[in-house]
């Protein structure tokens, strides 16, 4: 929200010289000072419609007592890069007011949050199947069941991008139906989607290439403030009971999958963490990379499922080999991200253009994995690109809604 300040300009008719110069004093006025004319009164504005001209626009101040304001202060203490706050990240912050955050935090710490779960879901913008009154959080049973299609999709995505070395083509699920404007047909389960994997040499300005479906397919939810999230047991039964996800439901399956993946022991050389709050994610990124960091994502799903042309390409960290932290959404009543460190990568920011008009339609982040020696020989990347583990690098786009943390150049 912004505040616009307007300046009122009034155009006056130009007075004549006789109107500007005072009349010469009369002899009576000179002889009798009390007879002198009174001083001029205040200026009277002419009639007519004034012209309003916007002068400048300034951001509206953030209420210092909201959950969002508390996180902004936390970010400013932890992140030292002095870059503008990333709008896409801050848009996911809790919308809770100060009084609501305090109330629900007290209830959560006392184990009594269930007594106000409908109000909580509505105020905190959560996905709660049992709370149809919370319309603003899309928390209806139909929304939860509508998530069924993305549960398998997310499980496939997690295996493919988060556990690269374990990915087998035989495990790849068929593409799920997605919502406009990023719809496309499903593909045979053994076929990697065109453009899902590519080589670093393909990142060339003017190059035409297929764009896979990178749409954020998960329902909108917000982060919880840390002091609330830490008081909700991160266990399948506890989460399902609190948010109303009965056995066999789409949300119950999603909760079970997310909790199990988060409980999985890290692979050799892997650093991972499931972050249940924005503060948790910042802490993990700082722990892995230091405080001079930035977070990026692909702006939208524009271009998905069709050919695009590459515009300006900028190497992050000068295009050199670097480290990053990738964070992927999990399907859960509130925002949970699976974050893991990614060593030996090169990253690029890319303007994505319409093929015919060369008009910019998106801005993407491309991640190129340079170390593939421990990947499965049956990985979909090698099916799509040829080659074997350790022989080639593999690149892919960051999905809309996911995040990549890097050192600041």
TrEMBL record:
Signal peptide start-end: 1-18
Keyword Signal: yes
Annotated source species: Paspalum notatum var. saurae
This protein's record includes keyword Signal: yes
Pfam families to which the protein is assigned, alphabetical: BURP (PF03181)
Keywords in alphabetical order: Glycoprotein, Signal
Entry protein name: BURP domain-containing protein
Region (Disordered): 21-43
Taxonomic classification: Eukaryota, Viridiplantae, Streptophyta, Embryophyta, Tracheophyta
